[in-house]
Amino acid sequence: NKSWGGDGTNKLLIEQKYLGEADYIEHFNALLPAFKDHRYILVDGKPLFTIYAPLESPDIAFIIKLWNRLAVENGLKGIYFVGRKYAGRYDKQQILDLGFDAVYNESMLTIHDRYSKFKKLILLLKAKFFGSVRVYDYEKASRYFSSDEDTQLDSIPIIIPNWDHTPRSRDMGTILINSTPTLFKKHVKRVLSLIQNKPKEHQLVFLKSWNEWGEGNYMEPDLEFGHGYLNAFKEALDESK
Questions:
Q1: Local structure of 206: helix, strand or coil
Q2: Separation of alpha carbons 141 and 116, rounded Å
């Protein structure tokens, strides 16, 4: 398992090993009871399964074929595989070509890609030599959290309430500042408008995140806003019906 550092580097937390077909079958069988649970999210009648780093595994195309076959053998229609597309890092078509059915677009720092090369260099030097974290205004950054690509059936948008990676990455971290429930509600309504014309089973949105306190990325009640983010989300849903 790997974590992206604030400097864009891959930092190993726990080594992820790919042990071959027997291990992949064992993994599938461990998840099968969940896949068959009537509460499990289905898309096109298939259980939805996401892979965080779809281009990191050398066996991913094989695993997708194997799991789809095992799913059919166990009475399922297959598996609806979704791969994470990270802004500027993973290409959508590369992911789909491996056998994925869709991608989810993690575009939290797309605003950084909009900066000039000079501004990017300044941010990098400040972080490297002066321990200056990268800071972005939430309202400005949220303009790029979603795009028209998310209207496509094979693209799933995400909603982002806030972010502060410094507890993990310290001076190499990244922070979104000035997030409020009001701005979050505006962002949610934008995302919901992008999926409204999709078939019902494809009206999917991923939340990043519910309770990721270690990365300042949560919707749970806190001392600053109370139930503000939860209320904003509910209001956005009600107003988008």
A1: strand
A2: 15
Spell out the residues 6+ positions from residue 158 whose beta carbon is closer than 8 angstroms to its own: 104, 105, 106, 107, 108, 145, 146, 191, 205, 206, 207, 208
What's the first-to-final CA gap in the chain, in angstroms?
Answer: 39
3-state secondary structure of 235: helix
Q: What is d(CA 52, CA 55) in angstroms, rounded to the nearest whole number? A: 9
pLDDT digits (tens, 9 = 90+) for 48-57: 999 998 988 8
- Strand runs labelled E in 125-209: 134-137, 155-156, 158-159, 163-164, 174-177, 206-207
pTM value is: 0.87
Contacts of 236 (CB under 8 A, 6+ apart): 185, 188, 189, 192
In the chain, the percentage of residues whose pLDDT exceeds 70 is 92
Q: Among 65-69, 123-127, 190-194, where is mean pLDDT lowest?
A: 123-127
In 7-117, beta strands by DSSP E: 10-12, 42-43, 46-51, 80-86, 102-106
Q: What pLDDT, on a 0 to 100 scale, did the predictor assign at position 87?
A: 65
Tell me what pLDDT residue 11 has. Answer: 55
Q: Are 144 and 183 in contact (CB under 8 A)?
A: no
Question: How many other CB atoms are found less than 10 A from the CB of residue 161?
Answer: 29
Which tokens is 82 given?
Answer: 């979704």
